[in-house]
């Protein structure tokens, strides 16, 4: 593989891993869309940057095929597990007395336990870890598979269709699986709460997938210019044939 191909795959993989890992870490927070924008519903904080993962997944699939997506997805799953283990281990470290003392009150003078807050935020339960990994794995395999199926069905035409279509189908599954496993099977949410938040999450992802279509075309334009026509065509032929990078 040429130097430019390696650089491109490395760059896309870095963007993919960083945003997927961040989404998993900040996903523990549920915020009110109504309080923020006056719209009904609640969202997980992680969903805000998940569209970056959508776009990156589709670009990797376009140039490096299904195997290129799965390779980086499996690596990301391993890194997410590693991150959760490290974060959990830090919550078990005994807090320094002076750290507790200088942070013993909040901005309004109310009693505050910073170590308890740290543990509450970062000690994500087994359910969230299992739910996140399960949903991420299923979603990525489904996205990569549907993308290539649509690509072959359209003869390589309609980039927007295979990119958007694969995202909408995979995230329909992902949005419900992660919340169902994490907060219903392992948590204390009702099924109605799971369905409500999952529904809002999905429609946000739906809108983001549509709105980010121009970004996908811009990325294609820039990458094609960077690689050159000959290399671009070679990569896309290999991607369609599912040849490993």
UniProtKB/TrEMBL annotation:
<feature type="transmembrane region" description="Helical">
    <location>
        <begin position="206"/>
        <end position="223"/>
    </location>
</feature>
<protein>
    <recommendedName>
        <fullName>Probable queuosine precursor transporter</fullName>
    </recommendedName>
</protein>
<feature type="transmembrane region" description="Helical">
    <location>
        <begin position="159"/>
        <end position="186"/>
    </location>
</feature>
<keyword id="KW-1133">Transmembrane helix</keyword>
<keyword id="KW-1003">Cell membrane</keyword>
<feature type="transmembrane region" description="Helical">
    <location>
        <begin position="126"/>
        <end position="147"/>
    </location>
</feature>
<keyword id="KW-0812">Transmembrane</keyword>
<dbReference type="GO" id="GO:0005886">
    <property type="term" value="C:plasma membrane"/>
</dbReference>
<dbReference type="Pfam" id="PF02592">
    <property type="entry name" value="Vut_1"/>
</dbReference>
<feature type="transmembrane region" description="Helical">
    <location>
        <begin position="39"/>
        <end position="60"/>
    </location>
</feature>
<keyword id="KW-0813">Transport</keyword>
<dbReference type="InterPro" id="IPR003744">
    <property type="entry name" value="YhhQ"/>
</dbReference>
<dbReference type="GO" id="GO:0022857">
    <property type="term" value="F:transmembrane transporter activity"/>
</dbReference>
<feature type="transmembrane region" description="Helical">
    <location>
        <begin position="72"/>
        <end position="91"/>
    </location>
</feature>
<comment type="function">
    <text>Involved in the import of queuosine (Q) precursors, required for Q precursor salvage.</text>
</comment>
<comment type="similarity">
    <text>Belongs to the vitamin uptake transporter (VUT/ECF) (TC 2.A.88) family. Q precursor transporter subfamily.</text>
</comment>
<keyword id="KW-0472">Membrane</keyword>
